[in-house]
Amino acid sequence: MTLYGWGNPRYFPLLPPPIRRYFDVAPGARVAADCHWQPDRWQCPTLIALHGLNGSSDAHYMRGLAAKAFARGMNVVRLNQRNCGDTEHLSEGLFHSGLTTDAALAIDELTRVDNLSAIAVAGYSLCGNLALKLAGEYGPNPPRALTSVAAVSPIIEIGECTRALERPENWLYQWNFVRDLKRRMRRKETFRLVAFDLAGLGAIKTVRAFDDAYTAPYFGFRSAEDYYHRASAMRVVDRIGVPALVISAEDDPFVPPQPFRDPKVTGNPRIELRLTAHGGHCGFVGVRSAEDDGYWAENEIVDFVARHTRV
Hints:
By secondary structure, the protein is an alpha/beta fold. It contains ten helices and eight strands.
């Protein structure tokens, strides 16, 4: 299902063209979002969708989720993380899986400036971790507008996921992630906003090596392992105080199921856990019909957000 999700072409003829929106999230950092607004947007719930590592607002699951949510009467904000979706020129620095400030600032702006009163956040993979970490950091005092969060295949214990990715049978996924990380660094270099030493980039073969060389030192972590520990949602998942949907699969090739059985997860009554036997990584493809394309997790997110919406 993992490979099928990556390779299966999808089309969304009923999803209207997006309106581009920019959020200034830090000095020297701007992120772009593709937004789909209902005609009476202020009376509708809003879903902020967050993509996975090396993804973008244009990822098939982002558009699939947007199509389903928009059809149910929701606004949708498909938010790019820093440097993603060909936006390397908008931010001086990098991005990491625990950098929740950008999503938090987007929620704040949509609440204050746009007067939206019901906002949910849904993240995939790396940003599934980010969505849960954001909710955990809010703890018992989330913004009034935040109604719920959802996470699909979240890497809530990043170190364990990285070690799983390094298994020989996962070489294809590792190669793909590293290739795209290198491409992004080379594209950033062309804009010369901040100088990065790329002399050793070609020799990097693993995500861990990339994080040791670039992500960790840029953000002040002692090492990749220090970054993985401190950026993982597992550190704060027990503090989540809004309804949270977590979807993951036992057969995910690089997100082990064990962390989801931790009492920090299972003991939090606000977390609704769907740990399925099959689904792969961000796959969850079922039987399709004339009305439904079979992408089960997308439907589950929209149903969950609708149940917990207050406008």
